[in-house]
Design a protein that fits this description.
Elements lengths: L14 E3 L5 E3 H4 L13 E2 L2 E2 L13 H15 L11 H31 L4 H6 L2 H14 L6 H31 L4 H11 L1 H20 L5 H45 L13
Helix pairs in contact: 3-6, 5-6, 5-9, 6-7, 6-8, 6-9, 7-9, 8-9
């Protein structure tokens, strides 16, 4: 009751249960001392906690600040003290973790859809083989221009997944049709597909590059914040365009031979079937 909260001596009216199951006054098992202390004790969960706030200096990203805070905490805090970020820093860590899983899930869904579309377990890998070069181009471009891999840059990498894989799809779709319906060899079909589909591949890539270039330059209100997105997409497009046109035909040829070899191995050696009217 409120009237028992004014004097420390009133704690003697608080009873606790002993190890024998009986109720005893609190002053029997405790000792009181008068000392200085905080007006209130904050808790995070069931543990006492202290909040330390920090701000960002101009030109420093939130990811760099969180890494610096983690390093200081590991060097100065004892092992009995644990910490975690709250507020904007906590949301930043959650968003980066969820974006990584979102990228993995997107690649898995793309692989399943392409596998169903082309009725193959191998050729979806051929289509996705150009994505590492796009990611490398995006990261190198961010490094050259001194930009961090922030949320905008990660969205740009997600955009590259859809833009870059269409180059391989346009070539491989034509090659599979030529190989299955016209009976051409993998080398002939992918070579013809690369030559015929070269023009639409370049047109779509140049259109995407021209559309994202103003964002990479930083035009418009808030353009500096979105600049990482444009740089990631532009760098990824340039590198992936050069690499995809060269390595996709090679990967397609080798993977097509691998798929045929796996098919022959799963069916076993073909037996010679005698023609009607002959004896063995």
């Amino acid at each position: 009751l409120p009237r028992f909260q004014k004097r420390a001596g009133d704690l003697r009216w608080v009873y606790v249960r002993s190890n024998q199951g009986k109720m005893v006054p609190l002053d029997v098992v405790t000792r009181q001392e008068m000392n200085l202390g905080p007006l209130q004790v904050n808790h995070a969960g069931q543990l006492p906690s202290v909040t330390i706030s920090f701000n960002l200096t101009p030109g420093v990203s939130l990811s760099a600040a969180t890494e610096a805070v983690k390093k200081l905490a590991s060097e100065n805090l004892p092992s009995t003290v644990s910490g975690k970020f709250m507020g904007t820093a906590q949301e930043f860590e959650k968003s980066m973790t969820s974006l990584v899983w979102l990228l993995v899930l997107a690649l898995a869904v793309i692989y399943l859809i392409l596998g169903i579309l082309y009725e193959s377990f191998i050729h979806p890998v051929t289509i996705l083989a150009g994505l590492p070069s796009a990611a490398m181009g995006a990261l190198v471009t961010l490094l050259v221009f001194g930009r961090e891999l922030d949320l905008y840059a990660f969205v740009g990498i997600m955009m590259l997944v859809g833009i870059v894989k269409k180059n391989a799809i346009m070539m491989i779709d034509f090659a599979l049709e030529a190989e299955r319906k016209e009976g051409k060899s993998p080398e002939q079909s992918i070579m013809e597909g690369g030559m015929i589909r070269f023009r639409p591949i370049m047109m779509t890539t140049i259109a995407a590059f021209a559309g994202i270039l103003p964002i990479a330059i930083g035009f418009g209100a808030g353009g500096s914040a979105r600049r990482a997105l444009g740089l990631a997409v532009c760098g990824g497009l340039v590198v992936s365009q050069l690499v995809t046109l060269l390595i996709t035909p090679v990967i397609y040829t080798y993977f097509d031979e691998l798929q045929n070899w796996l098919g022959r191995k799963s069916h076993g050696p073909e037996e010679d079937i005698p023609e009607p009217g002959t004896t063995t």
